[in-house]
Structure formats: structure tokens, C-alpha cells
Design brief:
Elements (H helix, E strand, L loop, with lengths): L7 H13 L2 H8 L3 H15 L4 E3 L4 E3 L1 H30 L2 E7 L1 H18 L3 E7 L6 H4 L3 E5 L8 E8 L1 E5 L1 H7 L12 E5 L7 E5 L5 E5 L1 E6 L2 H9 L5 E4 H9 L4 E3 L4 E2 L2 E7 L7 H14 L5 E2 L13
Parallel strand pairs: 3-4, 3-5, 8-11
Antiparallel strand pairs: 1-2, 5-15, 6-15, 6-16, 7-12, 7-13, 9-10, 9-14
Helix pairs in contact: 1-3, 1-4, 2-3, 4-10, 5-10
């Protein structure tokens, strides 16, 4: 048997004959001559070395071997169609527009570069990238993908939990020199900090000690801001201490512009989620973008997937 004689055209012809039970009908379906249908069948039977049909002047009937071969051919053609569909979806995915909304600071410092990398890979895809800390209506705003920090309760959206964002208490070296370095949560009680106004419960600090005990301290703010980047700049300017997402200040901790205080006490992590408009989730380019962003976000310092080990203890400068 020559493998080259078993072609998809001959398999398709065989399958259609088995379904139509008429060479004439198959020729009409394919828009080809009956002699071509007959030739395809003979060539396939010769390649396999077994008859696939018994033929009379009135009927075409599958042999036992033909029936078994028909079942295999259906699976083969199904796989071919599935592969072709995936390629068509990929081709469609490389053009069109994806609208993304992201928490402001995370988008500016990290997700923006992921968007750039995605467009480098798929240059024909247009991105509309919006930054806001407000909870928006994806459908009303025409947004395909939203990346949000904190608990979410919108059950109408398709939710994908990306992981948890870990936080640390930070302050500038100059602030620590003036105010002293806290050694226990209660040492924070008389100090003034920088507080995020949009974070629920931010008027108190909740810390867990290494032995599992919990400490709650009233957070006395000197400055209140409504954006993570504003908090970062305030810490750097020595306006106070406060909690910060690790990804927000990682570079400042590395180069010593900020330091971690009370490194042995853990702040509660915040869930980081991706919301996708349900009616848009099946579009290939949006699935492609969502998967790309989710993979990239998982590599950001201070963000861990659920079920992974706890983030490493912050480095103290």
C-alpha cells in the first residue's frame, strides 16, 4: 500500500458514498463527474487492499471492513476540521480591537508593558487601554477585559482569579530617621501615615504576627490619597509610612529609596481578578489577550497564584 494514495479527497469521497449510498448522488454533491468518484473509490480500495463496498446496479453497501474504516475516517475528518477551525480562529484573532480596563497603578507600572508585548506579537490587534480604579460596567462601557484589585461581587461577568497581591508596610529612610523604626504593631499607634481613601477598611491596620496572633492598630493618616502612584510618591517624599502592594514599590525597595518596616508581620493579601464580558469571552482575539495578560501578571513580583507558597518575607534594607 502506498501511503500517498490515501488522500483526504479520497477519504471524503468514500465517507460521502457511505452516507449517500449512491455514486451518482456523490458526484452531484461534489460537482464532479461520476467517473472521478469511481476512480477515487478504486484507488482507495487498491491502496488499502480490501473492498469497502459491495455494489449492485441498485445499491451500494458497506462491507464489514468498509464499516470499520468509515468509523475511523469520521474521526480523521473531525480532527482535520477541528485543526482547520483552530487555525481560522487564530487568523481571526490577529486582527480587531480589544478594550482593556485596569487598576491605575498596576496598569501604569506593569500591565502597560504586557500590552506592548502582546501587540509586538500580534501587531494587527488594536488595543484600547483605560486606567481607572472605579468599578465600571463592562457592558455599558464597551470593555472586553477588566483587571481589578480587591473583592468583587459582580456575578454577571466571567471572573478569572489571577492570584493574590501581597502588601508590605513601607517608609523612606528619612522618615525612619526622624520617627524611629517601629518594632511592634503598637509602635505604629502614635505615628502619622499615608492612607488610601478608596481602600475599604484602610482606617485600621490589621497585621498577623509570626505566631499567628492578630494585631489591629488605628491608622492615623497625615495624608490621604486616592491613587497608588500618589501614595508611592508620598512615601518617597517622606510624608509618612503605610501599606503598599509589593509590585508598587519593588524597585524602590531594591534601590533603598524605601524600606520595609515590621517585616515579620503580615498584612492581608488582596485578590487580583480578571473580568471578561460574557458575550465577548468566546471571541478568539479576546481569549488570546486574556491568556497572555494572565500569564504575564503571574510573573509580577508580589503576586502569587492561589494555592502557591506564601510570598517570601520582604527584604529589609
Amino acid at each position: 500500500m502506498e501511503q500517498s494514495d490515501i488522500t483526504l479527497d479520497r477519504i471524503r469521497t468514500f465517507v460521502r458514498i457511505a452516507e449517500r449510498r449512491s455514486l451518482t448522488a456523490v458526484a452531484r454533491d461534489f460537482g464532479i463527474g461520476q467517473s472521478t468518484v469511481t476512480r477515487h473509490l478504486h484507488e482507495l480500495e487498491n491502496a488499502l487492499g480490501v473492498p469497502l463496498f459491495t455494489r449492485t446496479t441498485r445499491r451500494v453497501t458497506l462491507t464489514d471492513e468498509g464499516a470499520r474504516y468509515y468509523a475511523h475516517c469520521l474521526r480523521i475528518l473531525g480532527l482535520v476540521e477541528q485543526a482547520s477551525q483552530e487555525m481560522r480562529e487564530t487568523r481571526q484573532a490577529v486582527s480587531g480591537t480589544v478594550r482593556i480596563s485596569c487598576t491605575g497603578a498596576l496598569g501604569t507600572l506593569h500591565v502597560g508593558r504586557l500590552v506592548h508585548a502582546f501587540q509586538d506579537r500580534y501587531p494587527a490587534i488594536r488595543i484600547e487601554f483605560g486606567l481607572t480604579d472605579e468599578r465600571i460596567d463592562l457592558v455599558r462601557e464597551g470593555v472586553d477585559i477588566a483587571i481589578r484589585l480587591g473583592p468583587l461581587n459582580d456575578s454577571s461577568m466571567k471572573l478569572r482569579l489571577l492570584g493574590e497581591s501581597h502588601r508590605v508596610l513601607v517608609a523612606s529612610p528619612a522618615w525612619l530617621k526622624t520617627n524611629g523604626r517601629p518594632r511592634h504593631p503598637q509602635d505604629l499607634a502614635g505615628l502619622e501615615g499615608v492612607r488610601m481613601s478608596r481602600v475599604q477598611g484602610s482606617e485600621r491596620l490589621h497585621l498577623q504576627a509570626p505566631d499567628g496572633t492578630h494585631h489591629t492598630v488605628a491608622f492615623r493618616e497625615r495624608l490621604t490619597v486616592d491613587h497608588g502612584l500618589a501614595a508611592r510618591e508620598a512615601f518617597l517624599a517622606g510624608r509618612g509610612f503605610g501599606p503598599a502592594h509589593r509590585w508598587l514599590v519593588e524597585d524602590c525597595l531594591t534601590d533603598g529609596r524605601l524600606e520595609v518596616i515590621l517585616p515579620d508581620y503580615a498584612l492581608a493579601a488582596s485578590p487580583l481578578s480578571m473580568l471578561i464580558a460574557p458575550e465577548r469571552s468566546g471571541i478568539a482575539r479576546i481569549r488570546l489577550c486574556a491568556d497572555f495578560l494572565a500569564s504575564g501578571i503571574a510573573s509580577i513580583s508580589g503576586i502569587t497564584r492561589q494555592g502557591t507558597a506564601r510570598a517570601p518575607k520582604p527584604r529589609v534594607s
